[in-house]
Design a protein that fits this description.
alpha/beta, globular, binds arginine, Rossmann fold, 54% helix, 4 domains, four-stranded antiparallel beta sheet
Length: 584
C-alpha cells in the first residue's frame, strides 16, 4: 500500500524518525490529529508532553525536529510545515500533493485499502437488533439495528470479516403465557394478517389472565415445564411461533437494508450450558449461594457484592448463562477476534459482568479472550423530553414509523418535483423517508438521548439524510449537463488554487482519518459530521467556482473535485445504509 494514503500514519512515522534523530527518544509519541483548517491539515501534538517529561523547552525541540523533517524530500513535496504556539507542529498538504492524491484514489476499492488497518483480516461477530420474539418491534428497537448495521459495514470496509448475528430472545418464561393464550384465544385470521400483532395480543392476554387467576398461572407454568422438558407438541408450537415472529421481522430488516448471516437466538444455547456450569465451578469462579450458582468479583466496587446469577435456584438457565455459552461459541465456532454487542445502556451492568466473568473463565481455561465491545445507546425522546410514545401512550411501532417517514417524504418529493414518473417518485420517497430516519439516529452521538422530530430529520438543509442525498443528486446533475460534450480526464487537471478548491480537496483526503476515528470508537456520528461538512464545502465551492469554464485544465480539476465528492458521499452514505439517488 502507498504509505501516503494513510496520512496520519505516514506523518507519525516521519515525526517519530525525526524525534529519534533529534532527541533519541524511544518513548516519544507523535500524537497526530486533524488540525484546525486555519492552521493546517494535521498537527503533531507529541512534543509538549515529551518536553514536559524531560523538562526541556518544547519550542526548541519542535524547531530542531522541523529542521530535521524538512530534510526529507518526499515530505517536503507533500506538506509545508510550521510551528504553532508552544510547540505544536502543523502540516499543510501542498496543492500538488492534493492533486496527486485525488488522481490516485479514484474508486471505492481504492479508498478501502488500508482504511483502519487495525481491523484488517480480523473476524468480528456483531450481535445487534436481537429483539424478543412474539413482540412488535417498537421505535426503541431501531437504534440497535441501524447502529449495528453501520458498524458492520464500517468494519467490513476496513477489511474485517464480519458475522451479523441476530441473538433473538426466544427462550424463557413468556412462552408459558403465550401458549396458554394461544390454545384458548387464537384468532387464525388475525395471525395470518399480522402475526406479530396477534402474538403480542395473545401474550398480553395470557399475562393478564395469569396475573389474576392462580389456576391459569399454574397451567401456564405447566406449559413452560413441558416446553423446557422438550415435549414434542410444545416444541412444535414454540417453533411455529418463532417462525412466524421471525418472518414478520423480515419486512423491517428489508426496509432498513439489513441482512443477517446467522440467527442464533438464546434457545440455541440452552443445551450448551452444562459446560458453563462445570467449568465455572471447577475453576472456582462460580459458587453456590441459596441454591443458585453465582459469580462475585471481589476486586470490583459493585460486583463484589452484586452477584452474576448464572443458574437460578430452580435449576434453570437464564440470560446470563446463555450469554456465557454464546461467548464460548463465538470464540470456538466463529473464531472471533472481536465481539460487538449492541443494546441500550440499561444493560451496561450485565455486559460488564459478562466481560469480567468471561475474561477470568477463558484465562483459567487457556483460551484467548476476544476483544469485547458493548456498544450502548441512549433513548429516543418525544417533544416532551420523555421516551417517545403514541398519543394514547403506547410505544410507536417501528413498522408504522417507517411508513410514516415514507409518506412524509413523498409529500416533499411530489411538491418539489411534480413531473417525475410515479414509480420513481415512490422509490425516492422510500429512500428519503427511510434514509432520514436512519440518519437522524446515526448522526447523534449514540451515548446521548435525542429528540425525534419529523420536521428536523426531513429538512433539506441541516445535518440530515435528505440534505446529503440532495447534494449527491445535484452532483449527478452537473455531470449530466457536462459530459455530453466533455470527456473527463483527471490527468489534464492542474493543481488546486482557489481557497474553496483547496479546502474541498483537503477535506476529501481527510476521509481516511475519519473512517479510522469512526471505526476505532464505533461511533458513526463522526462519519455523519464529516459528510455534512464535506457537502457544505462542496456548496461553497460550487457557488464560487464555475466548473464548466473554457480553460480545460481548470475545468478538469473542478470536475475531478466533483467526482471525488460524489464518490465519498456515495461511499459514506452506503456505509450508513442510506440509499443515494441520481435525481431527486
Ligand atoms: N433480546 C435482548 C433484549 O431485547 C437483547 C440481546 C442482546 N444480545 C445478547 N447477546 N444478550 O434486550
Amino acid at each position: 500500500m502507498d504509505p501516503w494514503f494513510d496520512l496520519p500514519k505516514q506523518l507519525a512515522t516521519k515525526v517519530n524518525e525525526a524525534a529519534e534523530t533529534v532527541v533519541g527518544a524511544a518513548d516519544f509519541s507523535p500524537d497526530i490529529r486533524p488540525a484546525d483548517p486555519r492552521f493546517g491539515d494535521f498537527q503533531a501534538n507529541g512534543v509538549l508532553p515529551y518536553a514536559k517529561s524531560v523538562r526541556t523547552n518544547p519550542r526548541e525541540v519542535a524547531t530542531r525536529m522541523v529542521e530535521e523533517l524538512e530534510k526529507d524530500d518526499s515530505l517536503a513535496e507533500a506538506v509545508t510545515i510550521n510551528i504553532a504556539g508552544p510547540g505544536f507542529i502543523n502540516f499543510r498538504l501542498t496543492p500538488a500533493f492534493l492533486l496527486r492524491w485525488l488522481q490516485t484514489y479514484s474508486t471505492e476499492e481504492a479508498l478501502r485499502q488500508g482504511a483502519g488497518a487495525f481491523t484488517h483480516g480480523k473476524k468480528v461477530v456483531v450481535d445487534f437488533g436481537s429483539p424478543n420474539t412474539a413482540k412488535q418491534m417498537h421505535v426503541g428497537h431501531i437504534r440497535s439495528i441501524v447502529i449495528g448495521e453501520a458498524i458492520c459495514r464500517l468494519l467490513s470496509f476496513c477489511g474485517a470479516s464480519v458475522v451479523r448475528d441476530n441473538h433473538i430472545g426466544d427462550w424463557g418464561t413468556p412462552y408459558g403465557k403465550i401458549f396458554y393464550a394461544y390454545k384458548r384465544f387464537l384468532d387464525e385470521d388475525a395471525l395470518a394478517t399480522d402475526a406479530l400483532e396477534e402474538l403480542e395480543r395473545l401474550y398480553k392476554e395470557g399475562d393478564k389472565i395469569t396475573r389474576e387467576d392462580p389456576q391459569a398461572m399454574e397451567e401456564a407454568r405447566q406449559e413452560l415445564v413441558r416446553l423446557q422438558a422438550g415435549d414434542p407438541e410444545s416444541t412444535a408450537l414454540w417453533e411455529r411461533i418463532n417462525a412466524l415472529s421471525l418472518d414478520a421481522l423480515q419486512d423491517v430488516y428489508h426496509r432498513l437494508n439489513v441482512n443477517y448471516d446467522v440467527v442464533l437466538g438464546e434457545s440455541f444455547y440452552r443445551d450448551k450450558v452444562e459446560t458453563v456450569y462445570r467449568e465455572l465451578t471447577d475453576q472456582n469462579i462460580a459458587e453456590e449461594s441459596e441454591g443458585a450458582l453465582v459469580v462475585f468479583h471481589p476486586e470490583h466496587p459493585r460486583f463484589k457484592s452484586q452477584p452474576f446469577i448464572v443458574r437460578k435456584s430452580d435449576g434453570a438457565s437464564n440470560y446470563a448463562t446463555h450469554d456465557l455459552a454464546t461467548m464460548l461459541y463465538r470464540l470456538e465456532h466463529f473464531q472471533a477476534d472481536i465481539i460487538v454487542i449492541v443494546t441500550d445502556s440499561r444493560q451496561e451492568d450485565h455486559f460488564e459482568h459478562l466481560a469480567l466473568t468471561t475474561t477470568k473463565w477463558f484465562k483459567k481455561t487457556g483460551r484467548t479472550m476476544p476483544a469485547f465491545h458493548h456498544v450502548t445507546f441512549g433513548t429516543i425522546l418525544g417533544d416532551d423530553g420523555k421516551a417517545i410514545k403514541t398519543r394514547s401512550g403506547d410505544p410507536i411501532r417501528l413498522k408504522r414509523l417507517l411508513d410514516e417517514g415514507v409518506e412524509r417524504a413523498l409529500e416533499v418529493v411530489r411538491e418539489k418535483n411534480p413531473d417525475l414518473p410515479p414509480e420513481e417518485t415512490r422509490a425516492i420517497g422510500e429512500a428519503v423517508g427511510i434514509g432520514a430516519i436512519i440518519y437522524a439516529d446515526l448522526s447523534q452521538n449514540r451515548s446521548s438521548d435525542y429528540i425525534f422530530s419529523w420536521k428536523k430529520l426531513l429538512s433539506l438543509d441541516g445535518n440530515t439524510a435528505p440534505y446529503l442525498q440532495y447534494a449527491t443528486a445535484r452532483i449527478h446533475s452537473i455531470f449530466r449537463r457536462a459530459t455530453p460534450d466533455l470527456a473527463e480526464d483527471p490527468s489534464k487537471a492542474t493543481a488546486f488554487e482557489t481557497p474553496e478548491e483547496l479546502a474541498l480537496a483537503s477535506k476529501i483526503v481527510a476521509f481516511v482519518a475519519v473512517i479510522q476515528q469512526t471505526t476505532a470508537t464505533l461511533r458513526p456520528h463522526f462519519l455523519c459530521i464529516y459528510l455534512y461538512e464535506l457537502a457544505g464545502l462542496f456548496s461553497s465551492f460550487y457557488a464560487n467556482n464555475r466548473v464548466l469554464v473554457d480553460d480545460e485544465s481548470v475545468c478538469q480539476r473542478r470536475l475531478l473535485l466533483c467526482r471525488r465528492v460524489l464518490l465519498i458521499l456515495e461511499t459514506g452514505l452506503e456505509l450508513l445504509s442510506i440509499k443515494t439517488l441520481k435525481r431527486m
